[in-house]
Queue: 2 jobs
Job 1
Amino acid sequence: MPKRILITGAAGFLGSHLCDRFWEEGFEVIGLDNFSTGSPDNIAHLFGRPRFTFLQYDVTNFIHVPGPLDYILHFASPASPADYLRIPIQTLKVGALGTHKCLGLARAKGATILLASTSEVYGDPLVHPQPESYWGNVNPIGLRGVYDEAKRFMEAMAMAYHRTHGVSIRIARIFNTYGPRMRLDDGRVLPNFIGQALRNEPLTVYGDGSQTRSFCYVDDLVEGIFRLLLHTDYPYPVNLGNPEEVSILQFAREVLELIPTSRSTIEFRPLPEDDPKVRRPDIRLAHKLLGWYPQVSRREGLQRSIAYFKEKLSSVPS
Ligand code: UDP
């Protein structure tokens, strides 16, 4: 019998890539999504295949899954600042109530559960790069607090289920990840810049562009999640991301360099509230536990993403 895995947020950017990976590895995949930020397009190719079931469902409600369950990946959540500012209460609910439902299900089924946490638990970090031992610098009542605190609650809840009920848990602290299936209009920097460059619109750099991020290509992230779930039983948070750090202004220049036909310029816009000034994962723990290290360079990952967004734009009437 194939192992059964439930993936929440299955129609999202990361969730859909995880559905693909576990399906290819021979798992029976059950996907849940309410399409609040995900899209059926991301999983359309899986419909009708054996070993794949999809349910349109809001995981903040009681989750009933008939039969046994070996693993749960809780990836349902808005992940782009623009999205979680637009739907702040849903963001809090899926991180808090949705996590509670998933942990309850894991307990009932004796399943191992991996929760998608985030580098946002470090807030605007005062320690750089960020190791898992850093407790963070989060403004709980700021606009980003809805996401940061939901994910911090998620971690606390997971640890409580582990300590109290012995549930087998994994916590992935995921840093900025990019690649095909991000929504062009999700507001994050990479789809914004690529979409703008392809449409010959100005690239909108927030602030002076000196803030930094470290971008991980989606295939590397999926490999890290796969190994964290299956190659260890380590229950504490593990950073997953690419430690190659770049300023946002430099990132805009790289996007323009890779789209030489673009006539776009760079324009500066106000920096959003509580926008972290630096971000770079310390991934020594993931390397030690999982033998994992990102393989795809930013140049290569950007090229693959540009090809995807080009295709997307050419199929959408302007
Ligand atoms: N950003 C930008 N222009 C954009 C979108 C984002 O300069 O059009 C900046 C944003 O202010 C932040 C960084 O790019 O400093 C990454 O933003 P994103 O929304 O991708 O994710 P975050 O890492 O902030 O969660």
Job 2
Amino acid sequence: MTARLIDGKAIAARIREQLAGEVAEFHQSTQIVPKLAAVLVGADPASQVYVRNKEQACAKIGMASDVHRLPESTTQAELLDLVGQLNADPLVHGILVQLPLPKHIHETTILDSVTPLKDVDCFHPENVGLMVQGRPRFLPCTPHGVQVLLAESGAEVDGAHVVVLGRSEIVGKPVAMMLVQKGETANATVTICHSRTKNLAEIVRSADILIAAIGKAEFVTPDMLKPGVVVIDVGINRVNDRLVGDVQFEGVREIASAITPVPGGVGPMTIAMLLKNTLTAARIAAAN
Ligand code: GUN
């Protein structure tokens, strides 16, 4: 069996097209142009590409965006001050502080300083709490992208055993919470595996759906998988100038029933969900 490809690029394009229509309608009825403010500190090459992609994606669907590019030497106080200004700016609806931040800046302090109503990454504890309780204000971008890919792939999530590889705050933990909830493309039995998990290979082999988000290039090999598994690869690893996922794609596609490619799988979905959250934030602002 060769797995079906889950085409994140095409699915994200369709979502962006739909959002463009919603942005135009929203503008017509409120005169408001939804605006994202992105903050990039330092010169991390990958972060520069991600932020540029986000900026271009906003423009393409009729949203405004500002990118605040700050030097590596920016102090925590200066960054807090900028976030405070963006929190107070009525023309800014969504705020995104690109991670990672330089080592001398305490990440949690900065992320907690973003007002929850503009927290389009869904990193603020208030928004994480609302999401975990099943009454989300925003959904976290990459986990939501994964969920939509599962829905589009036709995979049966209800009652399935989903194994999540990785327990990060950005992907592993929130995606597990979303898929275990009551709801559509949810109701799964979820196991989270991480670096301290015993019998990891055995657990992974029992997965109906595998979500790989550990940041280790080609960690998941075909011998670890049950035939017919649906594989969502969240990894983006650079190996000799080549981008590879956390899954050994060529081998695994021969055993899985469906798989996301890297690039062109989860990546474009993250940006589409960020745009969706920015529109949600603008709607919240308009209603207040
Ligand atoms: N760096 C890597 N992924 C992300 C993300 O989803 N949001 C932000 N703000 N930074 C990131």
